[in-house]
Write a structure and sequence with these properties.
This protein has about 350 residues and is an alpha+beta fold. Helix 1 packs across helix 7, helix 2 packs across helix 5 and helix 6 crosses helix 9. It is built from 9 helices and 10 strands. The strands form 4 sheets. The protein has a 4-stranded antiparallel beta sheet with strand order 5-4-6-7, with helices on one face. The chain has a two-stranded antiparallel sheet with strand order 1-2. It has a two-stranded antiparallel ribbon with strand order 3-10. Helices cover about 55% and strands about 15% of the residues. The mean pLDDT is about 85.
């Protein structure tokens, strides 16, 4: 049962990404030859006209294959014969649909768990914030000059902050007054550096606030993903902290089992598993959207770079050179996937 849920999460995310390419291509009268969810051997397929649809064995990706996408074609409805701005829209649609999916799921999630404004519910006595005069009800609006809108942005910053690095906060009192304070985290009894504040969730004040905080939720995951990528590039994370599909699936399985153990009734377990899977969908959908926008050949971002160059120069990049670029990018992606998969297997079975 757990495996089915995990595959379903990956399937939904991949489907929505490829559906973005598919629907924008169809709206612009581009012929789509194949629409596939999954990779490897086909489990079943249908469709006999212009497009054939596939469900494949390995739930690790998918594709939307358009006529003239990788080869020359004289058909006026081939991808390669459409204006450059149309091709840009088609390629960008996949990542954009991932962000749309994450936003829609965020609305559902927040409707269930509530909003988490950056308002302090408690200030721990003896902590850095307490000693600086911070009070319950104060709202944090900036961290080191960066605006924040929900409490988890504070927790994200503190998790990524140097253990004993001072942090500058801009705080708004309940009467609207703003003031700044610099706090140095203290080591608590759990061996963790904290500034000694506690936030939390509350019911949203209507659908308007629900949608607003859904936007903040999307912003949070975009910020967390970009920050994580920067840390990977700069060596700020250990190799065991980097997970691919296998590692993510293992983590999701652990969460499901933990929820089952902590829930008192079957109904409570079902609801909590649903909310946790919804949260994973948001996280992974944002990750897929951002990863695909990276300017790496063979990914959507790399193809967008080539199309933007074409749009600026008004000259198509020669097909043979584009093919070489995409092959190099594809090989690099495969190598990266193999390294991540090896890391997942090592962490799963040998750690």
């Amino acid at each position: 049962m757990n495996l089915i849920l995990i595959i379903l999460v990956f399937g939904v995310i991949v489907f929505f990404h490829e559906f973005g390419h598919f629907i924008v291509a169809k709206l612009n009268k581009i012929k789509v030859s194949e629409f596939s969810i999954g990779m490897g051997p086909a489990i079943f397929s249908f469709g006999k006209k212009e497009t054939k649809y596939y469900l494949r064995l390995l739930p690790l990706g998918g594709y939307c294959l358009m006529l003239g996408e990788d080869e020359a074609s004289e058909d006026e409805n081939a991808f390669s014969n459409k204006p450059v701005w149309v091709r840009i829209l088609v390629i960008a649609a996949g990542p954009v649909f991932n962000f749309i999916l994450a936003f829609l799921f965020s609305i559902i999630l927040i409707n269930q768990v509530g909003c988490d404004p950056a308002v302090l519910y408690q200030v721990v006595e003896g902590g850095a914030a307490y000693e600086a005069g911070v009070e319950p009800g104060d709202k944090i609006v900036e961290i080191n000059g960066d605006n924040i809108y929900n409490y988890r942005e504070l927790t994200l910053h503190m998790e990524l902050n140097g253990k004993h690095e001072p942090v500058e906060l801009t705080i708004q009192k309940e009467n609207g007054e703003l003031y700044q304070v610099t706090l140095t985290p203290k080591l608590d009894s759990d061996g963790v550096y904290r500034i000694g504040v506690v936030g939390g969730y509350r019911l949203c004040d209507g659908i308007g606030e629900n949608i607003k905080f859904a936007g903040y939720e999307l912003r949070y995951w975009v910020k967390a993903t970009i920050t994580s990528l920067k840390m990977i590039v700069t060596g700020g994370v250990e190799s065991e902290d980097v997970m691919g599909p296998v590692g993510v699936g293992g983590a999701m399985n652990d969460v499901i089992e933990e929820v089952k153990e902590e829930s008192e009734t079957t109904g409570e377990a079902v609801l909590n598993i649903f909310l946790n899977m919804l949260n994973w969908c948001i996280l992974l959908s944002v990750n897929l959207g951002i990863m695909n926008l990276l300017p790496i050949p063979a990914l959507d971002g790399g193809r967008l770079v080539l199309l933007l160059i074409e749009g600026i120069t008004r000259k198509k990049i020669p097909e043979d050179k584009e093919a070489i670029i995409n092959v190099i990018g594809f090989v690099l992606v495969i190598i990266l996937m193999f390294v991540i998969l090896s890391n997942d297997v090592k962490n799963l079975f040998f750690s």
